[in-house]
Amino acid sequence: MLTEKVTIQSKKNSELINVTDKVSELIAKSKIKEGFVQVFTLHTSSAMLINEDEPGLEEDISDFMLKLVPEEGTYRHHHFFPQDGRPAINAWAHIRSCLLGSHVALLVFNGELFKGGRQNIYFVELDGPKRRSFVVQVVGAV
Questions:
Q1: What total of structural domains would you count in the chain?
Q2: In what order do the strands lie in the sheet with 131-141?
Q3: What is the per-residue pLDDT across 12-50, written as a single tens digit (0 to 9) for each?
Q4: What pLDDT shows up at residue 80?
Q5: How do residues 71-108 score in pLDDT, each as one tens digit?
Q6: How many other C-beta atoms are found inside a 10 Å radius of the C-beta of residue 38?
Q7: Is residue 79 part of a domain?
Q8: Is residue 81 part of a domain?
Q9: What is the CATH number of the domain that holds 30?
């Protein structure tokens, strides 16, 4: 088994970042031949998903989430956290994360990521730009 934390830097408030190559690299490093890989975001204002690697679609998904859960509005999450001295003014990002999900899982077959021809793994930034982390865990037989 291999478990590794990966850190990335998002560049926009809302964006899809293709992490498929990094996940494939970690599968190769693990030497696992048959099993599965889990990819999990460490943030409640980001998400993970599987979709097609096409720039127009990436923008469409971001735009749809902005319309579905708009930043304007009265959210009860908008308040000050005295315990860590930070304001919480990003309820929309947490709600979007709930809708998209925090992890994805795919098979490892013959030592490689087993996926559809157009499927890719995305880290979804919902409250950026920020330095973010996700965990990749590869489990199976060597």
A1: 1
A2: 2-9, 131-141, 34-41, 103-109, 112-114
A3: 999 999 999 999 999 999 999 999 999 999 999 999 999
A4: 64
A5: 888 888 876 667 777 777 899 999 999 999 999 999 99
A6: 16
A7: no
A8: no
A9: 2.60.120.460
Is residue 133 within 8 Å of 15, Cβ to Cβ? Answer: no
The 10s digit of each residue's pLDDT in 104-126 is 999 999 999 999 999 999 999 99
H-helix or E-strand spanning residue 65: helix 55-68
Could you tell me the CA-to-CA distances from 59 to 7, 16, 27, 121, 131 in Å, in that order? Answer: 22, 8, 28, 15, 20
Q: What is the extent of the structural domain holding 39?
A: 2-69+90-141
- pTM assigned to the model: 0.93
- Could you tell me if residue 7 is inside a domain? yes
